[in-house]
Amino acid sequence: MAVIAFKYYVVAHGRHPGIYPTWTACQQEVHNFPQARYKGFNDLIAAQAWLKNPVWLETKKPTFSQFQADSDSQTAEIKIWTDGGSRNHGNRLNQHVKVNDLAAWAYLVKFDHQQYVDSAGEFGATNNRMEIMALYQALIFLIKQNWQQKSIVVILDSRYVLNAITQHWLNNWQKNGWKTASGQPVANQELWQKLAKVLVGFPKLHFIWTKGHANDHGNVFVDHLLNQTMDQMRVKQN
């Protein structure tokens, strides 16, 4: 079960079933406990009711409704800034991305007074694809460091990526066979599918939207980094 900041944590099947006020206390009761069953609530009455009758809807597919958009990043152990960009005709009315158009993504990870950055580019990719790729690559980096269980906040300026994760679009796309509400195939489907598999491995992942290219130093940094990448791509292209 994924963990977010609930007021109450109910352990229905663990070392000592009951209601706990913090995730730390709950985790001690369920960690490495066979077939542990637990759930978070913000309402005490609902928590008490679930403890008496712990109904759990099993599903073989991951869901993403646990991820939230927050306004505070002060308590996170790891902070991530991601950004994607493109210099293509797809940003203009009635024109499309061309195979030689420049696009790039970048991320900045801050943890334990250290910074980790990466960036890469593609030809002929859209801005939205690069926004998804930036988040995906940042999470892959965390997996390689074995940091999935830490509290993490992602700061990004893409409403497209933010809403897909926190407004349940991603969950609904998966339920609908990767079709939109209008029945159209989801754009960037293969990349969303890869991201979906990765997201469920991060139990304490939160998101914050920031205005692009404004006063957030991390956002400005990754924007500058991805533009450097596109500049280098242009030199090689010429």
TrEMBL record:
Its EC number is 3.1.26.4. Keywords: Endonuclease, Hydrolase, Magnesium, Metal-binding, Nuclease. It catalyses: Endonucleolytic cleavage to 5'-phosphomonoester. Residues 74-231 form the RNase H type-1 domain. GO terms for molecular function: metal ion binding; nucleic acid binding; RNA-DNA hybrid ribonuclease activity. InterPro entries: Ribosomal_bL9/RNase_H1_N, RNase_H, RNase_H1_N, RNase_H1_N_sf, RNaseH-like_sf, RNaseH_domain, RNaseH_sf, RNaseHI. One of its GO terms (biological process) is DNA replication, removal of RNA primer. Its cofactor is Mg(2+). Belongs to the RNase H family. PANTHER family: RIBONUCLEASE H1. Endonuclease that specifically degrades the RNA of RNA-DNA hybrids. Monomer. This is Ribonuclease H. It comes from Liquorilactobacillus vini DSM 20605.
